[in-house]
Amino acid sequence: MTTQNLVLGQADPPRQARPRKRGNTTPYLLVIPACGILILALGYPLVWQFVTSMQRFGLSQQFGQPPEFVWFDNYVTLFTDPYMWTVVARSLAFCLVTAAVTMAIGTLMALLMNAVHTSVRITLQISMLLAWAMPVVAAMTVWNWLIDWRRGVLNSVLTGMGLDFQNHNWLADPLSFFFVAMVIVVWMSVPFVAFSIFAGLTQVSTEVLEAAQLDGATLSQRLRFIIVPIIRPVLAIILLLQVIWDLRVFTQIRLLQDVGSIASETNLLGTYIYQLGVGSSDFAMASAVSIFVLVLTVALSWFYVRSMLKEDES
Amino acid sequence: MKRKLVSLAALATASALVLAGCSSSADGGTDASTDNSGKTITLWLAGGDTPDKMRDYLKSEFAEQTGATLNIQQQDWGDLVTKLTTSLPDANNTPDVAELGNTQSSTFANVGAFLDISDMYEELGGTKLLQSFVDAGMVGDKNYALPYYFGSRAVFTRSDVWAAAGVEQPTTLDEFNAGVAAINAADPLGIPDFSGFYLGGQDWRNGISWIFANDGELATVKDGTWTSTLASENSLKGLAQLQKLYKSASNAPNDAKDSNQYIYLNDSDEIKDAEGVVTSNTSLSAATIMAPTWAHLSIGTLGTDADGKATRTWDDTKNEVFALPGNDGKPAPVFAGGSNIGISAKSKNPELAKSLLTIIYSEDYQTMLGQNGLGPANSDYVDSLGDDQFAQALIESASNSKLTPAAPGWATVEGSLVMEEFFSKIEGATDLKALAKEYDEKLTPMLNGE
Fold first, then answer.
1. B255–A171 CB contact, under 8 Å
2. To the nearest whole number, what is the mean pLDDT of chain B?
3. Number of domains observed in the structure of chain A
């Protein structure tokens, strides 16, 4: 299935091995700058963070006092703190639900774009591009106005429909806070998902679909047995990206917290790290949580990446 | 020959500076003839409280006295602690002089972020400087940060709504508590969710006044160790009054913070429909709020200034300002606002930075602070605040105002939002004492910087 490889941007490896000269160091030399930049840009912060997570590092250390090395003390404190696990569970639930909803809506949008007339499709695409291109802070300001408890248009519309939503504060209750946050995150991520899947859909050959139709396959059968298997690699990679992004979500939650809600009840991993590090100047603990999030992300995506690679090989 | 002259000049400058530092005269400006022209120092001001004309004055006066350039950068209050944390330790990026919240200064003084300026203390005003702010910037018996200006919190009301509800201006805290509850129950204008006293659930900066007014403390210190005392008998009295206010006098959301609550006193922002017809003026939703005294600039009738910017004009027939009364005849102790100022320990031009401080603490500048509604650091110049009702409310409420604990970890407490969290739980608490104890246990280690 060449479409899969095309989508993933991988070409078949050349069958014939080129003759190799022994001792030719030029390729390695050429690779050094790229590796160096990678190590500097990614490796250094990672190592620093790992080392810091095993020290006591607070404001005094920031001002030059030598940090005390405490090995895994911070991790022990962290893993025995029930609040930390609350935040982890909350973040996982939020990330999985948000990613699933984003994928569902994104797929439907892509199918819609594939089905409608060109002019309608371009209108859809432009409006989604605008949502995608909107700076997060600007978008969040507008969202905050929409859901404002006193003068927000949302409450006004709901009250106008005869429901009692006058002065309803959406951010006070953690559940409705996360609902609002999810709507905003989904709104911002759907365009990317829709465009990517739409690109995948253009790879589905019309001949196959027509043949299936002639054989009497219904619309849902064509979707389930032909379209989805063909675009599965695209779906897989986008779902993976969404899960990772939604696990690390920060800006939207932080800006909503500025407007309302009680921070300790609405912290996700991102805002928790921020509160520990920037808020409380406990840089060591913040580093420890960051390292944990890194491990969590790798664990979450590990099976996924492996199964994707396997599928690719077969 | 030329080099010799330069070094002679340098020596002269140095000795002039040393002499200026030793002398206790107030005019400690350095000799303008020495060559500082290539040098620049940076001053960080927090928020927009210092008006532009005062910034211009500082720049020109500094250039005149030292020959060097003063670069003023404004920082947001919101991320000030973050910026100070990252910039102060870095000699290449540090501001030479920085303004910061008075409650934040003890934390930074304790970690050695500021230069020891004990030798300048007398020259800059000595005991005339606001003592509680001076204390906040001290470690042991050394001065690291000094007061820049002070503010205080006062009660702002809609006197017309108070009158409509038939409630008189209170003279004691008990009367105040009962009065705002009565207005809340009466809701004379029939506005849904109207607050007799709008007090946000997370608004601890105003709420702690009730702890202080009942002789409670947030924390006490003994032999250098801080203990959080929310569960002390007196603090609990205040918390019980607060709980009652939250339940019976305030309809503010439980998650509202100390932020722009004065907008709820204004009735002139209107909601319009598509034809521009005013459909409702739900904006007015509180009869009473507490805010820093400079909030009066944002209360009143909407208008526009010469540049077309929206302005608010205080309306004496509708608005009133007074200091929160205590039960002992004095004003209730409210949270003292304001800021401190210090020289970065990593400053490359500490002598120039010291010259800037002498300008800030000069009579001219202190008077300008007062004229702009900011409480001057030096008590000799408090008269410059004038005698209008806002100045009176400021001076009266400041006379008994109180700072948050000068503990090494106070900035951490603020940064971690624990106080916000605690206050949000007061209204719904069935056992206030247990709640207060729970938070005492959280706060004590934070206060000690553990």
1. yes
2. 85
3. 1
CA distance B79 to chain A (A): 9
**Closest CA in chain B for residue A166:** B192
Instruction: Give the domain ranges of chain B.
Output: 2-152+337-398, 153-335+416-447
Stated pTM of the model: 0.78
CATH dotted code for B2-152+337-398: 3.40.190.10
pLDDT in tens, A131-156: 999 999 899 989 988 988 877 889 88
Kindly report, residue by residue over B215-239, the tens digit of the pLDDT. 999 999 998 899 999 999 999 999 9
- Domain spanning B153-335+416-447 has what CATH number? 3.40.190.10
Residues of A near B (Cβ–Cβ under 8 Å) read 58-60, 62-65, 149-151, 156, 166-167, 169, 171-172, 260-264, 275-276, 278-282
B404: CB partners within 8 A, 6+ apart: B103, B208, B218, B335, B410
* Interatomic CA distance for residues B18 and A88, integer angstroms: 58
CA distance readout (Å), B387 to A63, A217, B391, B404: 44, 87, 6, 28
| B448 vs A contacts (CB less than 8 Å) | none
CB B253 within 8 A of CB B198: no
Q: Does B111 contact chain A (CB < 8 Å)?
A: yes
**Inter-chain CB proximity A275 and B416 less than 8 Å:** yes
Q: Complex ipTM above 0.90?
A: no
Contact between chains at A280 and B415 (C-beta distance less than 8 A): yes
